[in-house]
Specification:
The chain is mainly α. The protein has helices at 2-12, 24-53, 69-72, 80-94, 100-126, 133-153, 155-158, 181-184, 194-216, 222-241, 244-250, 261-279, 288-305, 312-315, 317-339, 360-366, 371-391; strands spanning 166-168, 176-178. It has one domain (26-311).
Length: 396
């Protein structure tokens, strides 16, 4: 909204300095600072309100014997509401609201925030059950369907200068891949299925990353720390993709108007860093599914919009490892039970499991590594992966 105000002040009244709002870099910095200020100013009052007034505390499984589990069971949750507010408010203030990419990201934030909120609220009223998993998946699939169709058919996106189904392959020279080519080689009749293939890909990416973020949110500060790093990398990629000079220099896909997403992504970074202030060990508040589902969905949709979704396995390597650890653990336990003819659900001895506990951050906790050290090391790895992801723009 402030963009339009200062644009009017600059053009109608010719007020000196008002034109600074035309620069994405200025508005992105203002967005980050505003988001961080919102978190730091309203963090403490929000924690008291959500914890003391509403009694929204986390449901931690103390029987698992994890470090600080008893303390954490008394920690307020649903801090994702504050994260969402700190993303949405600066975006509304500093971004061009008629930009379709901004509209999609705001819609993503609100939609998955609502899905996560329902889960957190039902956990409070129904106990640990929360929102059944199938309904979370339905929410994620619905979002993926809408985003995929908008990318395919919205005129502002269709006219971006590249095929609507084109993406970027990391580490490859002349690295543009058109998903349409994956199916049209079958025959001319397959062209009618291109939209279906693309929408399915979008749905899979959104669902996978959103759930992976939710899975990563297991110990103090890990989800917000990793998300802030990922958001910073995506902000750089969006700004470069929306700048015709740098995109030509780097020989990457130029996407007109996509640079506006830098304002959103810096708000995202400010919000997650601000929440990290209160969520770092020992956490004063947890984000709950309200935050973790939304954060993962935001990263997924953002990467899809800037045509960098194939970079996510590298950029979000922490999410990949967290997910794989759970899959390996589940398969390993099933194989053990089958070999020993044990009924389904029978506990597997710890020394016979692939990991002491999953997701893998709990495995390191079980090995006696302090929680804060696990988080610090995961964030360091996330930073290295983010740097490598950006380097892929030239390393090919």
């Amino acid at each position: 909204m402030l963009y339009y105000l200062f644009d009017w002040l600059d053009k109608a009244l010719d007020i000196p300095g008002a034109g600074v709002f035309q620069y994405i870099s200025f508005r992105a910095a203002a967005s980050a600072v505003t988001s961080l200020i919102i978190m730091l100013v309203f963090g403490k009052p929000f924690i008291k309100w959500i914890g003391n007034r509403l009694g929204m505390h986390d449901t931690v499984r103390t029987e698992l014997g994890l470090e600080g589990a008893t303390r954490k069971s008394k920690t307020p949750t649903m801090g994702g509401l504050l994260i969402l507010a700190a993303i949405i408010i600066p975006t509304l203030l500093f971004a061009k609201l008629d930009n379709i990419y901004i509209q999609i990201m705001l819609g993503t934030t609100v939609w998955l925030g609502l899905v996560g909120f329902l889960d957190d609220y039902l956990k409070k009223t129904r106990g640990k059950a929360g929102l059944p998993g199938i309904y979370k998946v339905i929410g994620q699939v619905t979002l993926g369907l809408v985003v995929g169709l908008l990318i395919l058919y919205h005129p502002d996106i269709a006219g971006s200068g590249a095929s609507r189904t084109t993406t970027t392959i990391p580490f490859v020279k002349n690295n543009e891949l058109d998903y349409a080519k994956l199916i049209t080689w079958i025959g001319p009749w397959a062209e009618n299925l291109v939209w279906l293939l693309y929408v399915v890909i979008v749905i899979l990416v959104v669902t996978a990353v959103s759930n992976a973020s939710n899975l990563t949110d297991g110990i103090d500060g890990i989800a917000t720390g990793v998300a802030a790093v990922n958001g910073g990398a995506l902000a750089i990629l969006a700004w470069l993709s929306g700048n015709i000079i740098f995109s030509n220099y780097l020989n990457i896909m130029y996407l007109p108007n996509i640079g506006e997403l830098t304002i959103f992504s810096t708000a995202f970074v400010g919000a997650t860093l601000g929440f990290f202030w209160f969520n770092s060990h020992p956490a004063e508040i947890f984000m709950g599914d309200t935050g973790s589902l939304a954060i993962g969905g935001i990263i997924a949709v953002f990467a899809i919009l800037i045509r960098k979704e194939l970079l996510l396995p590298l950029l979000c390597g922490i999410y990949v490892v967290e997910n794989l650890s759970v899959i390996i653990q589940t398969m390993g336990c099933k194989i053990y039970r089958r070999r020993h003819h044990l009924p389904q659900g029978t506990p597997v001895p710890i020394d016979k499991r692939p990991f002491l506990m999953t997701p893998i951050h709990h495995h390191y906790q079980k090995k006696g590594i302090p929680e804060q050290k696990v988080v610090q090391r995961f964030i360091i790895v996330a930073i290295l992966l983010a740097i490598l992801s950006i380097v892929t723009l030239k390393l090919r």
